[in-house]
């Protein structure tokens, strides 16, 4: 009996595209290297448009940098356009370059790998101006080989701007950083009692990123997000316990 020759190219394109739509970006890129046939199919706008919109929902919603987005394609489109793939790769490289600036900014503070509120909130604000998506943070900041301070900065950005706590926690778990520990220390203004102001209070707490993301450390998250304001005189994040470090009004920086 002659063996039956079967080729994926004999399948209808809409079925192949349906299969491709279930793949992640890395898998899609790997499949495209198999042959010319797969390179053309895996570059289809039908596959890359939803990938782009899923990764950068803020960009699609607000079009903050006036990016010219291609017209949407459907499975019935005869032309196998690759504009969305080109735009995706261009945006990915642009994000990688911009996030590297944030990483460089953070690692320039060598003192026990610690950051004051003004420093890490500046990094978060810089990321907001880039309109990063959750996958950007997952690709570039949720890495075990990076400082936990960068992991935390990525987490604060996601909670403040993307507000998808379950997805954020899932991304941290996939990347192996959810159980990373960080020290948070803050100085609060002493309360008034019987006409006298009590001594300023120093709070130092070690928390995991997962506890911050799930709300188990909601007070810590509120302090991290607010920074230095009203009764909170100083906030610092560190890889070590800074409870014994002097924290007086003379050491407080002006922000």
Automatic annotation (TrEMBL):
One of its GO terms (biological process) is protein polyubiquitination. Residues 5-51 form the F-box domain. It holds the Pfam family F-box-like. PROSITE patterns: FBOX. SUPFAM superfamilies: F-box domain (SSF81383). One of its GO terms (cellular component) is SCF ubiquitin ligase complex. InterPro entries: F-box-like_dom_sf, F-box_dom, FBXO4. This is F-box domain-containing protein.
């Amino acid at each position: 009996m002659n063996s039956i020759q079967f080729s994926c190219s004999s399948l209808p394109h809409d079925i192949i595209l349906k299969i491709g739509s279930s793949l992640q970006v890395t898998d899609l890129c790997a499949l495209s290297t198999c042959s010319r046939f797969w390179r053309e199919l895996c570059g289809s706008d039908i596959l890359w448009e939803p990938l782009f919109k899923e990764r950068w929902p803020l960009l699609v919603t607000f079009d903050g940098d006036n990016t010219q987005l291609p017209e949407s394609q459907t499975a019935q489109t005869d032309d196998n356009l690759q504009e969305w793939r080109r735009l995706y790769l261009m945006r990915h490289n642009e994000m990688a370059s911009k996030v590297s600036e944030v990483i460089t900014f953070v690692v320039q503070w060598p003192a026990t790998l610690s950051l004051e509120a003004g420093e890490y909130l500046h990094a978060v604000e810089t990321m907001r101006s880039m309109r990063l998506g959750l996958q950007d943070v997952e690709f570039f900041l949720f890495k075990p080989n990076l400082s936990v301070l960068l992991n935390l900065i990525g987490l604060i950005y996601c909670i403040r701007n993307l507000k998808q706590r379950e997805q954020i926690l899932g991304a941290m778990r996939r990347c192996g950083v959810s159980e990373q520990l960080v020290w948070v220390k803050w100085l609060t203004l002493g309360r008034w009692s019987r006409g006298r102001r009590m001594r300023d209070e120093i709070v130092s707490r070690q928390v995991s990123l997962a506890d911050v993301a799930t709300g188990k450390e909601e007070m810590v998250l509120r302090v991290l997000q607010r920074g230095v304001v009203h009764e909170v005189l100083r906030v610092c994040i560190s890889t070590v316990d800074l409870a014994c470090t002097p924290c007086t009004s003379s050491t407080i920086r002006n922000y």
